[in-house]
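Backbone shapes recur. Consider a single case.
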Amino acid sequence: MHARGVISLVATVLLCLPSLTAAIAVVANVLLQRHIEEWGTVSSLVIAMAVFMGRPLLVTAAVVTWLVGMNRSVSQKVKYAHYIIVTLATIATFSVTFHFGM
């Protein structure tokens, strides 16, 4: 039963990866004090992926998290890990979308 929770956790991380990577790119560029005109192609590509692909992937990750949350055989630690990852990805997706997408 533990393996099923870990496999679903890997799926959740992979689904949230574009949003989390975009948030890391934004934070890195802010810490390096680079203006948006100085950002490289990789940073721009990662942010564009998060803006356009982040929301559908995040909805899928939320459904996986809901299914794991409803399963009694998955441990509480794995459930909380799902909740934390999806919450961070949601915050990252909305902040990147509102800042760059609109």
User: Anything to note?
Assistant: Residues 2-101 form one domain. Helices lie at 2-31, 41-70, 76-101.
